[in-house]
Design brief:
The complex is a heterodimer of chains A (557) and B (359).
Chain A (H helix, E strand, L loop, with lengths): L1 H10 L6 H10 L3 H29 L10 H35 L8 H24 L30 H29 L12 H32 L13 H35 L6 H15 L14 H29 L8 H24 L1 H7 L3 H31 L5 H27 L16 H31 L37 H6 L10
Helix pairs in contact in A: 3-4, 3-5, 3-15, 4-5, 4-6, 4-8, 5-6, 6-7, 7-8, 7-9, 8-9, 8-10, 8-11, 8-13, 9-10, 10-11, 11-13, 11-14, 13-14, 14-15
Chain B lengths: L1 H37 L16 H34 L18 H30 L8 E8 L2 E6 L4 E4 L1 E5 L9 E7 L4 E5 L3 E6 L5 E5 L5 E6 L12 E7 L1 H12 L9 H9 L2 H4 L23 E2 L4 E2 L2 H9 L17 H11 L4
Parallel strand pairs in B: 1-5, 4-10
Antiparallel strand pairs in B: 1-2, 2-3, 5-8, 6-7, 9-10, 11-12
Helix pairs in contact in B: 2-3, 5-8, 7-8
Chain lengths: 557, 359
């Protein structure tokens, strides 16, 4: 063990050749390095997925556009969805969890460092495999292609009859591989949180970020397994003559839908709960108050996790379930709104009476709050099954879930970047560029996704490569595309900020935000194995206690 | 002291102005978009879900207005609170180091913002369940028209089993008089992948799933043409699987039914074209009543010329488009399953002339 410590420390020393550095990064089992690898990997795919989105938006800029062929367009939206969910959102959140959870609970590493590395490389392999389909999709006959079955790959469209060649297989196996990676990381996070907390850190004293990642990991175990099972069944159908989803031979198309959405819906919460976690760390620090209603926040999260396991068929209101099933899934879906609302109110309560500092991380969290509120309310509209019969499968739904994923998840993630970048690199991100990034992205986001609801209300279905003129969709689609470009430019500002600040940013010091959780007690970047001596905590805000010995939190617990 | 207060006030105003500015810009954009949209309409060309012309679409709009007003109210309350908090509790440059009162929570407040949302959910659910039941479990009156809609990659087959009619892509239904309702009940089947039947002004969408028959119904109370399209991704040409529903008054509908039940035109002057149809691959996929063509992979052509569009709404039904469609379908609908027929010009002309007689 001590020789590993030595190796990692000496890696930072200058004068080593790049091959040695590369070797150290590839073979690392250090949770912080794996966290950074996850994040860089996800940022790479964020750019790729963004380019795909741009191609989609250029094509839809005007009716009967022929920027790309229908085949290419269908591949673009399939790859965009698959990439953004499985190879951007999941790994980036796992990256932050990997980096932060051990630091915040006073541990020196994850419980299973080798499993951690294995999980990352499995996920990385999945992403590369998916993109190799562009070359090898048809089986290396010279004309490859990427999957074009949509990111749900509904049966029987993904069966051999309708998706010949190997493009769907690349999709299946890529998701299977990254799914195993996700399960590995989830097990690791759970084990770390259960067994590696420092002395004094009772579950009731854990930072909310650790709590929420614990809940998220539990959900990953429950949600990814049915997806993996379904992928295996699809492979059996395609290669071993199975008939699970083969409707020509008595199989069931709706069975795939159930399997997919019992993964797919909890997945939304798998992605948003870590973002709740970011907001629950950032909002208190920049309001200068502890989180309002800590036990209620934990309870609401667990409640969301439970209820969200029973809402999946609200993605399937149009498939002809009977009125009782539709009513059941309507009420469970509406019920999720209650604990989610509680969380929003608690963040409000945290800010109430505070002294709010509008640094860039906080600005992004404010954007997150407003937008997540709207996303939640459009979600309530979609949960009213008859209303859903009009909205589902239309651009209204596309706008709704982008409101969740971009307006909620991505805004919180940007906040997390600005907040923890100093810890990870030792340098502050530039505030000026950060504010420019925020305001540009905010305007682009609202231009794109506010307006995108309307074509859906006017009857525009999703996943169409072109549309007829004269239906009232033209101007809106043009503006939506312009908004997408503004977001693209804002993202470039962000990437530029990441790079420039890495070399030129102001030195961060240990604790640039005057924050209260354990990661700020160590140097930036943290030393190998984090803590030279394992800390002992007496409250939820150990650094508050340290800074305010006259009025420590521990007095009130 | 006074200067400090003033300074805070100007900061406060600057932020308020900035936020207001963003909202004014956004509101302006949305208004402009709405105006552009509003200036384009020939009636019914915009398939808006908020302009229903049929009973199920009507009840959905009622429900949607109810849901919109409740969610709108929640939005206003929370939005106002958030904005208030952001403006009111801004940190001042002077209070560096002085922390606000540390408050950890309040059981009463938590209880309040748990119970009120639960009550709202109950109300929303009851309203929703009522409409689910009203639409899904609607009784079928005696005068109902029965249609079987079959989704194909990438077109619609419509069969009227009681009337003995087979047609494609353009559905004709009678307008329904509330005193003697003649709704149309559609049995929804699929020949290949999943599709979805969606004509926003007439009803919400219902999927057509292979091996899983579904049902939906329309009860239009206004005549006219209503537009829709496939709303479940079904493959390459999902985008051009358009739907046209003609709501006819009873006389028009009866006339349409009579015309559709006529046998196909057997004009001997066009026998050359019919010969082409009967001796090439056309008849593998297409049917024309009274010929040996009985294929079902493609649309029934017996009354092709009674339809306004070709290729499931992708092109207007003109002789030029028809010729182009037969010669090179990819020019109109790339990826459609109709192959290019590779006919000689003479055969092609004869075939088009023949098809033009199929009124």
């Amino acid at each position: 063990m001590s020789s590993d410590v030595m190796a990692i420390q000496s890696a930072d020393a200058a004068g080593r050749s790049w091959t040695e550095v590369l070797h150290e990064w590839v073979t690392t089992v250090d949770h912080k390095r794996l966290g950074v690898l996850y994040i860089l990997y996800a940022l790479f795919f964020l750019v790729i997925g963004g380019i795909e989105a741009t191609i989609i938006r250029i094509q839809l800029m005007r009716p009967h556009n022929d920027f790309v062929s229908p085949q290419v367009f269908n591949r673009m939206f399939t790859m965009h969805g698959t990439t953004m969910i499985f190879f951007v959102a999941m790994p980036i959140l796992f990256g932050f969890a990997n980096y932060l959870v051990p630091l915040m609970i006073g541990a020196r590493d994850m419980a299973f460092p080798r499993l951690n590395a294995f999980s990352f490389w499995l996920t990385a392999f999945g992403g590369l495999l998916l993109y190799f389909s562009f070359l090898g999709g048809s089986g290396l006959y010279g004309a490859g292609n990427a999957p074009d079955v949509g990111w749900w790959a509904y049966a029987p469209l993904a069966s051999r009859a309708f998706s010949p060649g190997h493009s769907s297989d690349y999709w299946t196996i890529a998701l299977l591989a990254s799914g195993f990676g996700s399960i590995g990381t989830a097990i690791n996070i759970i084990a770390t949180i259960i067994s590696m907390r420092c002395p004094g850190m009772k579950l009731s004293r854990m930072p909310l970020l650790a709590w929420l990642n614990l809940v998220m990991s539990g959900m990953v175990l429950l949600a990814i397994t049915p997806l993996s099972a379904a992928q295996l069944m699809l492979l059996v159908d395609r290669y071993l003559g199975g008939h699970f989803f083969d409707t020509q031979a008595g199989g069931s198309a709706t069975l795939w839908m159930h399997f997919f959405w019992i993964f797919g819906h909890p997945e939304v919460y798998v992605l948003i709960i870590p973002c709740f976690a970011f907001a629950s760390e950032i909002i208190p620090v920049f309001s200068r108050k502890p989180i309002f209603g800590y036990p209620v926040m934990v309870g609401a999260t667990v409640c969301i996790a439970f209820v969200s396991m029973s809402v999946w068929a609200h993605h399937m209101f149009t498939i002809g379930m009977n009125s009782y099933a539709n009513s059941f899934f309507a009420i469970t879906t509406m019920a999720v709104g209650v604990p989610t609302g509680i969380k929003i109110f608690n963040w409000l309560g945290t800010m109430w009476g505070g002294k709010i500092q509008f640094k860039t991380p906080m600005l992004f969290c404010m954007g997150f709050l407003f937008q997540f509120l709207i996303a939640g309310l459009t979600g309530i509209m979609l949960s009213a099954a008859p209303f859903n019969w009009q909205l589902s499968g239309s651009y209204f739904v596309v706008a709704h879930f982008h409101y969740v994923i971009v307006g909620g998840i991505l805004f919180a993630l940007f906040g997390a970047f600005y907040y923890w970048y100093p810890k990870i690199t030792g340098r502050m991100l530039n505030e000026g560029l950060g504010k420019l990034h925020f305001w540009m992205f905010l305007i682009g986001f609202h231009l794109t996704f506010d307006l995108m609801h309307i074509p859906g209300l006017l009857g525009m279905p999703r996943r169409i490569y072109t549309y007829e003129p004269g239906r009232g969709w033209e101007t809106l689609n043009l503006l939506v595309t312009i908004g997408a470009f503004i977001q693209g430019i804002a993202t470039l500002v962000f990437v530029a900020n990441l790079i420039i600040s890495y070399f030129k940013g102001a030195k961060a010091g240990n604790d640039p935000w005057d924050a209260w959780t354990l990661e700020w007690s160590v140097s930036s970047p943290p030393p190998a194995y984090n803590f030279s001596s394992i800390p002992t905590v007496a409250s939820r805000r150990p650094l508050w206690d340290l800074k305010h010995p006259e009025d420590p939190d521990s007095r009130y617990e | 002291m006074a200067t400090i207060t003033n300074k805070h006030k100007t900061e406060w105003k600057a932020v308020a102005a900035r936020i207001m500015g963003v909202f004014v810009i956004l509101a302006g954009i949305i208004l402009a978009a709405a105006l552009c949209t509003a200036s384009e309409p020939p009636a019914n060309s915009i398939p808006s879900i908020f302009e229903p012309r049929s009973t199920p679409a009507d009840s959905i709009r009622h429900l949607s207005f109810f849901v919109l007003s409740i969610t709108g109210l929640i939005f206003l309350v929370v939005f106002t609170l958030l904005t208030y908090v952001i403006l009111k509790f801004r940190g001042k440059s002077g209070d560096r180091g002085r922390e606000p009162a540390q408050v950890y929570g309040s059981t009463q407040i938590e209880l309040a913002w748990t119970v009120i949302p639960i009550l709202i959910v109950v109300v929303l659910f009851l309203a929703t369940a009522r409409v689910i039941h009203a639409i899904q479990d609607a009784p079928r009156p005696v005068g109902a028209v029965q249609v079987t809609a079959i989704g194909h990659q990438f077109w619609w087959e419509f069969r009227y089993p009681m009337l003995g009619i087979v047609t494609a892509n353009e559905l004709h239904v009678p307008v329904s008089d509330p005193t003697h309702p003649t709704p149309t009940f559609l049995k929804l089947l699929s020949a290949d992948t999943d599709h979805s039947f969606w004509v926003p002004q007439l009803a919400g969408k219902t999927d057509l799933i292979p091996n899983h028959p579904n049902e939906t119904w329309l009860d239009p109370h206004e005549t006219g043409l209503f537009l829709g399209q496939c709303a479940q991704y079904c493959g390459t040409q999902h985008a051009k699987m358009l739907l046209r529903v003609y709501v006819d008054n009873p006389e028009e509908f009866a006339a349409w039914v009579r015309a559709q039940r006529q046998p196909a035109n057997q004009d001997e002057k066009k026998a050359a074209g019919r010969h082409v149809f009967e001796t090439t691959a056309c008849l593998n996929c297409h049917a024309v009543g009274g010929t040996n063509g009985t294929g079902r992979f493609g649309p029934d052509l017996t009354h092709l010329m009674s339809r306004h569009t070709l290729a499931s709404g992708a092109a207007e039904n003109t002789p030029e488009n028809l010729r182009l469609w037969i010669e090179n379908p990819d020019a109109i609908k790339p990826g459609s399953l109709m192959p290019a027929m590779k006919l000689s010009d003479a055969d092609l002309d004869a075939l088009v002339r023949y098809l033009e007689t199929l009124q």
